[in-house]
Design goal:
2 domains, mainly alpha
């Protein structure tokens, strides 16, 4: 709510579409640049809620709870490291600008703003293209493409590690463009790309020739053969048209990776491909092939072209199958309630990170990541999910007691009233999972006895 109060509705909506004036988005110092992405959080929620309502009314399955929560979780996952680390992008940019700037364009000139806009967008195009065509960069970027749905939540499915490779592509701008102008366009370019992640906007008419649109970006997220390595644009589609990577939307698109990851667990979403790439490194013959494993495209194999053979792309099945695990209604509601509670705690962590000790922030961040893993395991209905969720709830109860004793609520150590209700929710949750584990244990014991009985009868009859 605090972020919502920092910007009025009209201004916030204009920012989502890059519809800002030069005067209102030109600043002398990076510290003066608004936190466009943080302030856009309420607008992300509004867009997703609207799309959810449309999908529910149309019953078209374009918005699934498990996939959407996985995407939102990936977005949260990607922001947690930033609690501890200064933005490597800005740190690198400012260092190059201060030490190697050739000619600094005036920060308050409209020409500087427009040059920055074009330079930022073209730099993003080349980063994005390399992220698809160079395997070690794809290791991080594939997280964004792992969703088999295509909606506003998909835009939030971001890699925690991608920022540590993308910043290099923007450094040439530092020779001329002030850091403040770069930061403005970096954030607005990111915001623009949020709203194009939808299936409900079919075409923008003549603007399709200039702008990156939902239609163009749907192609980029497709796993159909004609969609592979196409439409890398950020804001302007002109770069794809210029450099030969543009293709128009055609057949019905199946979204996601050509080889789906088939999980909602966030650590596997983030790092599953890294493990695959490392395993392949050790299995490939020859030193040169091992190097190519990281520098060539994801589809490359010995004897294949650098970016792979398009004929190796699996044919999209019809009807399209998406990874899904049917859960009981009560469990879906359980995850929804706990995820909302978690989101409130996550926002509290982000808002108070400057007032907490480094140890406290580290503990909270570790617990936040553990929570996301628990939710993912529940959506996968994995055998470990009961034990992980029980542990999560117990840790919350214990942690809350410790915080109270350490004076988190004040020197009088009196909890706010709502915390007693929250304790009740987690106590009830613990009871649920203890009962589920006991029931599963009894069931396993019954099956074991039944197997022994059957084996005994077979031996007796032989």
């Amino acid at each position: 709510m605090a972020d919502l109060m920092k910007v009025d509705f009209v201004t916030g909506m204009r920012r989502m579409f890059y519809a800002v004036s030069v005067n209102e988005s030109s600043f002398k110092d990076p510290e003066d640049v608004p936190q466009y992405i943080n302030e856009a959080t309420p607008f992300f929620n509004i867009f997703m809620l609207m799309e959810l309502v449309i999908s529910f009314l149309m019953q078209d399955g374009k918005f699934r709870m498990n996939d959407a929560f996985t995407s939102i979780s990936a977005g949260m996952f990607s922001r947690i490291p930033l609690i501890f680390l200064r933005s490597v992008t800005m740190a690198g940019y400012i260092w190059v600008h201060e030490n190697y700037c050739i000619y600094e364009l005036p920060w308050n000139s409209p020409w500087t703003w427009w040059i920055g806009f074009l330079a930022m967008d073209m730099a993003y195009y080349w980063f994005h293209r390399f992220a698809h065509e160079v395997n070690f960069l794809w290791t991080f970027h594939q997280t964004h493409h792992s969703s088999e749905d295509y909606n506003f939540s998909t835009a939030l499915r971001q890699s925690a590690m991608q920022v540590h490779t993308s910043w290099v592509f923007y450094l040439p701008m530092a020779f001329f463009i002030p850091p403040s102008i770069f930061l403005v366009h970096q954030e607005l370019n990111t915001l623009y790309q949020f709203w194009i992640h939808t299936q409900y906007v079919r075409t923008l008419g003549p603007l399709e020739y200039i702008l990156n649109t939902p239609s163009h970006h749907r192609v980029h997220h497709g796993r159909n053969a004609y969609c592979i390595d196409k439409n890398y644009a950020g804001t302007l589609i002109i770069w794809d048209r210029m450099f030969g990577t543009f293709v128009k939307e055609g057949d019905d698109i199946a979204y996601g990776l050509t080889h789906p990851i088939n999980t909602f667990e966030p650590f596997k979403v983030q790092f599953g491909y890294s493990q695959y790439l490392i395993d392949r490194f050790f299995n490939l013959p020859g030193f040169v092939n091992k190097i190519k494993n990281f520098l060539y495209g994801p589809g490359w194999l010995p004897g294949k072209p650098r970016t792979g053979d398009i004929n190796d792309i699996p044919v999209v099945e019809k009807p399209v199958k998406r990874y899904n695990v049917e859960l009981p209604t009560w469990l879906n509601m359980y995850v929804l309630i706990h995820f909302l509670l978690y989101f409130a705690g996550y926002q509290t962590l982000m808002n108070k990170k400057g007032t907490l000790s480094q140890t406290s922030v580290l503990v909270f961040a570790g617990y936040a990541l553990f929570c996301l893993s628990c939710f993912g395991r529940l959506f996968d209905n994995s055998t470990s999910s009961k034990y992980f969720e029980l542990t999560r709830c117990v840790l919350f109860m214990m942690g809350e007691i410790v915080l109270c004793q350490l004076g988190y609520y004040g020197d009088d150590k009196i909890r706010p009233t709502f915390m007693y209700g929250l304790q009740g929710v987690f106590a009830f949750s613990i009871a649920i999972w203890v009962a589920m584990i006991v029931k599963a244990g009894n069931r396993a014991e019954e099956i074991s006895h039944l197997d022994l009985s059957k084996n005994g009868k077979r031996r007796k009859g032989d």
